[in-house]
Amino acid sequence: MLKIHHFRNATFVIETAKDVILIDPMLGPKGIMPPFTLFRAKARKNPTVSLPSSCNEILQSVTHCVITHRHPDHLDTAGINFLIEKSIPVTCSYKDEKILKKKGLQIVQSLSYKKRESFLGGTIEGIPAKHGYGFVAKPMGNVMGFYIELPNQQSIYISSDTIYTSAVDEVLKTYKPQITIVAAGSAQFDLFNPVLMRMDDILTFVRNSPGKVIANHLEAINHCPTTRKGLRETLEKHGLSEKVYIPVDGEVVTF
């Protein structure tokens, strides 16, 4: 059995009988960070919601952490402090290794893109991600998605913060992950194009996913306009709602 514990935004846990893997820990209190947009969306401090107390128990059982990139809505000060305090081994992109080590994290594995490596008895591969449409992707910096195969478990693809690219398409159609996790908040700053998939690309992602999809990065950061309700209605309109889980904060999805 495999469980996905959705915490908030892009923070979640993959739980198997042997491992408890924390992904992108944003663990700080509500409103600890400034707004990410002031005009395009309501200028609310981030995160806009609290971390559910129900997450505390599984959080104390974490055995490993995987970090997709260093943006504060994926790795905040509280998340860094937690990883240091608990001496949690961390897997990350080779591009983030040096900086994360300087912050005091225990980096045990840094990954290159498109190179499969051993991971907790199975394998993990770094997948290219592009954090935005057009020019904005460059200042948004490097991001890495992950394709994970664990022993006796369904394969998982974590898109991380990306638009729909040829690399994403290849994973969905060639690797055929049984579970996919997509950042679906359509985030956008006051200027420039969106930095996450627009709705048409989210629909493409869902259509091309071979198995079940979990949509995250919703209703926790003020520059993400897509709501759970809006996403659900759009999926229903296109006949895709049965394929997608849209967990509320604190919800556990069991496979």
- CATH class wording: Alpha Beta
Class computed from helices, strands and strand pairing: alpha/beta
* N→C terminal distance: 6 Å
* Order of H and E elements: EEEHEHEHEEEHEEHEHEHEE
Rg over C-alpha atoms, rounded to the nearest angstrom:
17 Å
What is the name of the CATH superfamily? Ribonuclease Z/Hydroxyacylglutathione hydrolase-like
- Number-wise, the strands total 14
Are there runs of 5+ residues with pLDDT below 50, and where?
A: none
Please give a handful of descriptors for the protein shown.
7-stranded mixed β-sheet; 255 residues; Metallo-beta-lactamase, Chain A; globular; alpha/beta
Q: Can you offer a commentary on this structure?
A:
This protein is an alpha/beta fold and 255 residues long. The chain has one domain (3-247): Metallo-beta-lactamase, Chain A (4-Layer Sandwich), CATH 3.60.15. It is 21% helix and 25% strand. It has helices spanning 56-59, 77-85, 97-102, 137-140, 166-175, 199-208, 228-237, and strands at residues 3-8, 11-15, 20-23, 64-66, 89-93, 106-111, 116-119, 122-128, 144-149, 156-158, 179-183, 212-216, 244-245, 252-254. The termini are close together. The model has no long low-confidence stretch (mean pLDDT 96).
